[in-house]
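Progress against Task 2.4 (sequence-to-structure conversion) is shown through the following example record, which the project officer requested during the mid-term review.
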Amino acid sequence: MIPTDHGCNPKNIFPGTIYNRKEHVFNWLCKDIEIDYKAEDLTEDAILNLLRGRYSEFFPQSKRLKTNSQSKIFLYFNGHGGDNFFKI
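Structure tokens generated for the chain above:
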């Protein structure tokens, strides 16, 4: 899940890439990375439905969590918020 597409942001001077070092050793936005939820798809309802396993019959299998009662899920939220909202 990613709230914005930083690789395609017009402010990114290296389009289609995300680097965490100025040496540009490793592009984090690579062919091995698959983003299932981004931008307008990343809503409170989408996150809760994903965690609860509530999907419509047309919801793609590839975006579903394959969990059971023994599964452990670690969520890491990084961002900021304010009164009555949380911005991812």
